Amino acid sequence: MFPKTHLTIAAGATVLVAATVLMSPSSNVEAKRMSYSLDLEQGSVSAPAKGPASAGDPESAEVATDDATSGAPASAEGQTEATVAKTPPKPALDWQTFDIKSGDTLSSLFKAAGFNDGIMLSVIHGEGDADKLQRLYAGETIRFASDDQGKLAAVELQRNRLKSLKVSRTDDGFKGEVLTREPEARPMFASGVIDDSLYASARAAGLNDKLTMELTDIFGWDIDFVYDVRKGDRFEVVYQDLYLDGEKLGTGKILSARFINRGDERLALLYTDDSGNSDYFTPDGKSMRKAILRTPIDARVSSPFNLQRRHPVLGVVRPHEGTDYAAAPGTPIKAAGSGRIISAGRKGGYGRAVVLQHGDGITTLYAHMSRIARGMKAGSRVKQGQTIGYVGSSGLATGPHLHYEYRVNGRPVNSRTVKLPDAKPVPSSEMAQFRKIADQRLAQFNVFEGREQQLAMAEEE
Questions:
Q1: d(CA 426, CA 254)
Q2: Is pTM, for the whole model, over 0.70?
Q3: Looking at domain 94-180, does it have CATH number 3.10.450.350?
Q4: pLDDT digits 0-9 by tens, 414-437
Q5: How far is CA 74 from CA 48, 52, 307, 375, in A?
Q6: What are the DSSP E strand ranges found in 69-151?
Q7: 300-413: CATH superfamily
Q8: DSSP 8-class letter at 186
Q9: Domain ranges of the chain
Q10: Model confidence pLDDT, tens digit, residues 70-104
């Protein structure tokens, strides 16, 4: 039926397959079994191409590796797998680090790293944030990375522990990216009773100067911390401690705060609206801020509002239609509220003065400045808290101080006692979201307060 040569080939193939089975281990026979195809027409025996090993089949993976290294014929696909498995890792970059000192320039730093100005220009003219590499400050750190051919691969500028700028080589040139790390915020609690001063009591409670200033800013719209605070007043604060890699960096924002002044309790909660603006509100959504600051400067009152006061220079009874605040020359003066500048310049006995127009018929005047801040001119708009000038003694003044006037429809009013207009409350469209955040803040506050009371009771026992 078959030619003698075909029968000879078939017999040889049968012997080869039988020998292979006998020489293979008895276990895992299915996983390591080798199959051969018999071509009687061509008179040949060949091993078929193997399919890719399953990622979940380690035995199959082992067979593929053994076959590739044993010298046995391997398919093109088998060669690809072996090549991928043996691809060497990319060579590590060689980094050079420089601490930026006063007088260093980007050009001098590139040259110190072994790169010329042409490479520097290619970097700073790259895409993204690459041009920001030109702004260097003493105390920062810059690193240059070279590849195995000595070409510049990347530049990293470490501005601080949280922010850095990385410029990397790509196929299309250099591209820069600002990288920002977010510290871990851990809530903390502090409380105290005022004995001598707020600052001394706050420090004793563990609050730093930054948090104490923030506390006074939150409640400063209603409380004059120079004159209104009394011994026995209390404060409680939930704030953030910031950590990076397990190490404390500093403090973050105050999350909630309570201040009891003369028995009158005020509670403030931090809320960030849909636009990303953060401010402090009462639990019912009213702003802690006012449309007008109570005082535009942190200083003591040297002469109060008095419509029957005798003028210290002229020696005659002349109404003192404002409040004087004694302060060192050059102390910044803040705009009490947002508004438009009516006048800025010399104004008779007021000396150098700025007058602002606010809403609801309210105007404020700031006099006796040593100089007016740059950009302050009639018609310009200013924001609340913006510096508009600096304390001086220009005009009819016996010494450096700020003379501050508050008028409603042209009528002078005592700025320290007038009821100030409120800032905008939480929008009605965000009240549901605000209530959710407010409940969380209050619950957190109550937990901390409860722990504090338990510790106090334990100490007393």
A1: 19
A2: no
A3: yes
A4: 998 898 888 889 999 999 999 999
A5: 9, 12, 106, 80
A6: 94-99, 127-128, 141-146
A7: Glucose Permease (Domain IIA) (2.70.70.10)
A8: E
A9: 4-85, 94-180, 185-289+424-461, 300-413
A10: 444 444 444 544 455 566 666 689 999 999 999 99
